[in-house]
Amino acid sequence: MKNITAFNIYPSLPNNLKSLESIVYNLIWSWDHDMVALFLRLNRDLWESTDHNPILMLGTIEQERLLQLSKNDSFVSHVERTQQAVENYMKAETWFHKTYPDNSNTFIAYFSAEFGITECLPIYSGGLGLLAGDHLKSASDLGIPLVAVGLLYQEGYFRQYLNIDGWQQELYPKNDFYNMPIKLVITDEGKPLMVSLAFPEREVKAQIWKAQIGRVPLYLLDTNIAENNPNDRMITNQLYGGDKETRIQQEIVLGIGGHRALEAIGIVPDVCHMNEGHAAFLTLERLRYFVKNYKLNFDEAVAAVKSGCVFTTHTPVPAGIDVFQADMIRKYFSGFAAGMGMTIERFLEFGQAPGGNSREEFNMAILALRLSAYCNGVSKLHGDVTRKMWCGVWPEVPIDEVPITSVTNGVHARSWISYDMAGLFDRYLSTEWYENPSDQTIWQNLEQIPPEELWRTHERRRERLIGYARKLLSKQLAQRGASQFHVKTAYEVLDPKALTIGFARRFAPYKRATLLLQDRQRLKSILCNPDRPVQLVFAGKAHPRDEEGKQFIREIVHFSRDPEVNRHIIFLEGYDIILARYLVSGVDVWLNNPRRPMEASGTSGMKAIFNGVIHCSVLDGWWAESYNLDYDVGWTIGGWEEYDDPKFQDQVESGALYNLLEKEIVPLFYSRGADNVPWGWISKMKISMKTLSPLFNTNRMVHEYTEKFYLPCAQRFKEFIDDDFKRARAYHKQYRKMAEHWNEIKIKEITSTTGEGIVVNQNIIVTAMVDLGSLDYTDVDVQVYYGRLDPDRIIVNGKSASMEYKGKQGNVNKFVGIISSPSSGLHGYTIRIVPKYKDLVNPFEWHLIHWQ
Question: How far apart are CA 364 and CA 250, in angstroms?
């Protein structure tokens, strides 16, 4: 059985259906309802049983059915229309090409450990992957010159099922790559294109697959090939599986192998965007690439690499970042470091906080932060959290000035809106709602939708959710070994007319899935009110090693068996994209109750708002921004408080949630006129959709990434590498000069016009006499840093004002600045000096700062 000759069998399509072969390999169909309708016409049952996989459908559908459809003029016309739609999309002029016609030769490479594009490409686990998938879709819509890089997992993330006790179990079905919408990248000689990686005492190879996401190619690396030993074939076996050794191997393949894959394909990116720290090793490969190919020294290469990298972190706690023991880094990177002419100790410093030692753990986020021009969190609040979390990388910089900004996440509207709601939007908003979803004026036209029509559309989605949930629950109960009685009663759970609340997400402890269960008697009285019933639909996965998260699932399942509530609450296992679409379009309220400020963003609620679902959440992640826009967009649980005692917090916020349900949410839903239409509820739906839809979509998000990061980064990178890296070399030369002479700086004397009579908005003139040693006044920015003082005499929310150079007095330079305050109270100022150089993205880039 060892000597097997492999060959691939392709579907045999009638001539007039041949274009299906190209249609199915461009995943634009995953966000186009008319294209999905085409596959449904092929065979609806097969569409569902293949997890919406048109490749597998074409390979398994009966030949007789294909011949029958080839004689159906309507179906053939639908195929031709679809093919034309794909061609028109691919060649249409886009926002990027119209706005930036001179940047057609720019390449942005987007690296992520997971991508949630569609259900039949299961290489995602949750929000990070779905965000990455939506990022690619909007990049395609906008025409951003972006390529993406990831890993192709043989088993992907686990499939969830529950045992009879409600305890989560994991299945790892193997993916059949040859029946997925991806193609192997082939050389001119017809062989798989491969990249090689030096591992300890061996070489590991990876082949490359390609998925086409509209205009964006996604390249996926796969180590499960005959050229590798059995252990190395397992590197890309599971997403987030294995131990630390597996994780570092995966991240080497993703970062280093991914960059080499692009090089092998013929793409040298101007900008590399790391979606979380998993891909941060790509910065090291870029260093090696420049040192080897352009004869730069290591520090000059650092300047070039840093000019062209962007890092996005999604993690609100240090424990969520991958770290590796120093000995493991030595094992895998000693030869790599030596090849660049550096010691492994110097190498380790790139992943360690300042002042550490060579035995300290190597942190992937710190590596990315050190070697990126731009770094960001994924909501405004998460930006604040991230600056506090990583301020140690810039130890002398005030927290609010730590050079980490934020770009709030979004969702790809067309991917998550239901067919019914999309049709309603098409009629009243035209196609502008998905062609330009960030235009606020388009969403104002929601007022033109008759309230009764919007409500009927939403009720239809709730009915479809409940029908799907009953069918799914019945199947799952049977698989768990439940009695026939309980299997049959699954078709009686939930009421198609009752207020339906959805909670679906990763069952991490901080997301508090069981917050509603704090007072079960009070919850029962809310759920079982005969005049105003309420029902809960739960879904979500716990990480295989998260025992607490699994216990949350078990608690919910056990509570759902209580005879008093068993028709009002269900837990649906196997949370995936298919189930998510039903939930975000079918519930009435989307519930989100994380422990603030632990939710970096939380995009599931964004998917719901496009479907008219109203959000109810703790003021965390994206909701902290949304609720400030208009209090009528939804409901908030509690306020801006943060608690030291988790149990007390749960008690307070569960009580606040019960109060919301009893006094606001339930009464509003059931407040009906003679026509049985909830006019107040519909008004809130419209306010939510009008206000939030134009803001929390990935077209706005990718547009922001492009103009804030991609284009400035690409411009800087091209300038740095132009003319034999002249500017990169000059940048490094200036840094060396500044670093060598920085300690010569001395602030000699400070005077000001402060006195007893300072009033609001009165100017204060500050003078500083500074000895710069061997540096020139043009090398530095001397600043007054000032603001209100707290009780410990610390400046809070400080501001800086550059001081003007006024000449030299002997060896001392005179600088004068002007400050003022718009409010009364105790204020203070100090003097600081930072580098000034034309190619610095921020003044703290060189980690040089001198305080008074």
Answer: 13
